[in-house]
Design brief:
Elements (H helix, E strand, L loop, with lengths): L16 E5 L2 H5 L14 E5 L20 E5 L17 E5 L18 E5 L2 H6 L8 H4 L4 E4 L1
Parallel strand pairs: 1-2, 2-3, 3-4, 4-5, 5-6
């Protein structure tokens, strides 16, 4: 089934999980998806796009009960804004070499699992006790870095 950035009305109403891999134009136009209309959507995985610097800027376009987010292989991703993702339970960040820091606001209080791999700038900032972002993540029960 194919979707374009303008086909928000074509999304299945009971959609629970979406994986978007290698779709540069689709990721770049995520503000037009209309995914906020799908309360069943709980997992979003964004993989590979060298054109995307911050895929979550348009928070209003994502569903409220979002519980798991996976972001992989976005070589130009510089920042990650998680404000408003209050139901986020799991966060996976992998192969984002330009990702410099986590959200300026605190992470969701219910975040249970954080996985950071091949994100060298972020990994340094998240080092236990010494990293600049450690205070932001220290309350997460399950943390895997590296």
């Amino acid at each position: 089934m194919g979707f374009s950035s303008s086909s928000g009305s074509s999304w299945p109403s009971k959609l629970k999980s979406v994986v978007i891999r290698g779709c540069r134009k689709l990721l770049a136009g995520c503000d037009k998806w209309g995914m906020g209309r799908f309360p069943s959507l709980s997992t979003l995985s964004l993989d590979y796009s060298d054109e995307v610097e911050s895929p979550l800027k348009q928070r209003a376009f994502f569903p409220t009960p979002f519980t798991f987010l996976s972001i992989r292989d976005l070589p130009n991703l510089k920042s990650l804004e998680l404000q408003g993702f209050t139901f986020l339970y799991g966060l996976e960040l992998e192969d984002c070499p330009e990702l410099q820091s986590l959200s300026e606001v605190s992470l969701p209080s219910d975040l249970f699992s954080l996985y950071i791999r091949s994100c060298p700038l972020l990994e340094q900032r998240c080092l236990q006790d010494t990293g600049e972002d450690w205070p932001k993540i220290s309350n997460v029960p399950n943390i895997v870095i590296g």
